[in-house]
Amino acid sequence: MAEITAKMVKELRDQTGAGMMNCKKALAEADGDFEKAIKHLREQGIASAAKKAGRTTSEGIIFSYIHPGDKLGVLVEINCETDFVARTDDFRTFAKDVAMQVAAADPKVVSREDVSAEMIAAERDVYQNQAKLEGKPEKIIDKIVDGKLEKFYAESCLLEQAFVKDTDRTITDLLTQTIAKIGENIKIRRFIRFRLGD
Amino acid sequence: MAEITAKMVKELRDQTGAGMMNCKKALAEADGDFEKAIKHLREQGIASAAKKAGRTTSEGIIFSYIHPGDKLGVLVEINCETDFVARTDDFRTFAKDVAMQVAAADPKVVSREDVSAEMIAAERDVYQNQAKLEGKPEKIIDKIVDGKLEKFYAESCLLEQAFVKDTDRTITDLLTQTIAKIGENIKIRRFIRFRLGD
Fold first, then answer.
1. Domains defined for chain B, CATH in brackets
2. Is A191:A158 a contact under the CB 8 Å cutoff?
3. Could you tell me which of B93, B59, B98 has the C-alpha nearest to residue B76?
4. Which residues, listed in sequence order, are joined to residue B78 by a DSSP beta bridge?
5. What pTM, to 2 d.p., does this model score?
6. What does the pLDDT average to over A8-29?
7. Under a CB-based contact definition with an 8 Å cutoff, are residues B167 and A167 in contact?
8. Residue B15: its pLDDT value, please?
9. A136-161 tens-digit pLDDT
10. What's the complex ipTM?
11. In this complex, do A64 and B75 lie within 8 Å of one another by their Cβ atoms?
12. Which of B57, B71, B187, B196 would best serve as a mutation to test chain A binding (most A beta carbons within 10 A)?
């Protein structure tokens, strides 16, 4: 089996705009064959979906989900390129899935870019002190902290969370697949979650 | 007609817990007769409603309103004392009225206590400069600024806004009347308003 180098992954990313993990997986499945990997990404719609990610999204909908019992509610804004798509069932199903995800998994931000530098510093500080208190060797503490920070992102960032209705996929996967299906760029712009008494 | 003094108004407030304007009005209508004024407040349910205002509200509902077209949505948390009341139609009608009010009138905060000192200072500054630019005499500028600040509160604070479905009443009036009708303390805890692209 051919070795998949970081250089190869980068080249494929540059050509297709697809994510690193998708490129790595496509190359592995194509046994290092570049053309096959691109074909594979295209078939999955991932290459074209990623290319759409730069396009302006000024249309969309505001969608709400109220959990049975009326003690928990979510409001989301999902953007797309045209009002035509905003009215489709596929788009609305995606909006509903996102709103229910927010209700169930309580993310704090949409993506890791939305986590403030102060918040990251505070998290790192906690993890560092934890590792020290647990008597971990100094030289591996940075690695432990990085690992815990990744876990923090996976739990707090909506796009990195496992999709509650299908935990094999992340919300980013769901988003990419929806873009591929609908054929327009889509963005989860913002969300808010009210729980009674919070 | 009897003169209504500030002292009389204060005494009636202390006894009933009703608001200053309500007490003043009740005294004027009762021609200064204290017992009549109390009776009047009781009949309107205002005295007892005000007395309920101190009671703990840890139940309630999260309610959403999505404006037709799905480009504007509101999420509100309305609190009451018991889950029993939270399930009543009267309570839900109030929650819906509040959510539609937020959608239509775009308040910034629930009450004037929620306006930050910085925001007030910034508003005062603008009004002061406006008045100076318009060449208003120095000695009346403070009065002009106070007047404009009251107008700002009436527009920005949900509780002070005119109720869009009946502009003769404020949202505070609607709240007080709903408390009187339902017989439990009610609080508008928070709201959020998403408009597409905002």
1. 6-52 (1.10.8.10), 59-110+157-195 (3.30.479.20), 116-156 (1.10.286)
2. yes
3. B98
4. B61, B188
5. 0.78
6. 83
7. no
8. 77
9. 898 999 999 999 999 999 999 999 99
10. 0.77
11. yes
12. B196
